[in-house]
Every structure is written in structure tokens, then in C-alpha cells.
Specification:
two-stranded antiparallel ribbon
Amino acid sequence: MSEEGTIESVHRAMASTVLWMSLLSLILLFSGLDSVGLLSSPFALILLGITFAGSAYLYHGFSNRKPWALGPTKLLWLFLMSMCALFGLIDVLSALNGSLISGLLAIMLFYVVYTMGKRFKNFSNPMFVSWYYGTASGGIHSLSLLENEVMASCPNCLSILAVKPFELTADELCPNCNGRLVSEETAAKFSEEE
């Protein structure tokens, strides 16, 4: 995969996360308003409408690489993380009262917060920002890769890395998430060929 293709796949994954997490936040907001009996109030309807319209507008701008959308999408990302964390804490409290489903939801929401936190670094990655804005100065266009290095992304956290593919071993770890850069299947396949 080319450098551009790697960053495009990271961007697609981030845009998809924004879309699905925005939908999840609407469901959580809807559920929260319903649980306190405010769902039928005009305030709740306006809040849900603004949240839906704003999220859809930012998703559209970010997925189409509109220059104005990067900063607000970064803020939306933080908002979605904090909303998942808040509802995760609420579910922990429900789980302490004996609700198994709430305990499972809390675990899933905290996992979502964790994975979104790992991907948050991409918003500040100079190569990603340069690609997003389409600028030729800096980023991938001025990156001087060493001999035999290529641009790749970590299969676990999608961090953008410069790697030497012919020197990778099965024990190589991502510097950001400490996940394996080479899957066991791939390592086994190439060890059979040698």
C-alpha cells in the first residue's frame, strides 16, 4: 500500500468512528433523557436535533477533507470519548446495584474510550494533517525515508509508521500501542518460505 493509501485508510477509519460514535452518542443521549423523564420536553428535542445536525455536518466535512472540519472533529472526538466515559460510569453504578447488562455496557464503553484515545494522536500527526489539508510542504511529501523504508500503519492502532518491511521480525512492536506489527499468521507464512 502506498503512503497516500495508508493515510487514506486511517482517515476512512477515523471518519467511520466519528459516524458510528455520533450515532451511539445520540442513542445514549436519548436513553439518558428518557430515563430522567425529559424526553418529551422541547429542550430535549432541540438538544437531540442540534446534536444530530452538528454531528452529521462535522462527519460530512471531515470525511470529505474540508479544511474547516479538522479542528471541530477533534473536539467532537473528545466530546464522544467523554460522553462514553460518563455513560460508562453511570453503567458501573447500575452494575453495582446488580445489573449485569449495565456492567457489560460499562466494559464496552470503557473499551471504546480506550481505543478512541489511542487513535486521537492521529489528529496531531504531521503527516496526517499535511495529507488532510493537501499541502505539499511537510508530512509525507517532505518525509525522507531511509533506504528500504516504507510508510505503513500499525494494524492495531492505525498509527502511521516508517518501517523496513524486509527487516521486520515477528517480535516487532508498535511504539505507540505496543501491539505486534507482524501477525502470527504472516510470520508463520514467511518462516515457512525461508
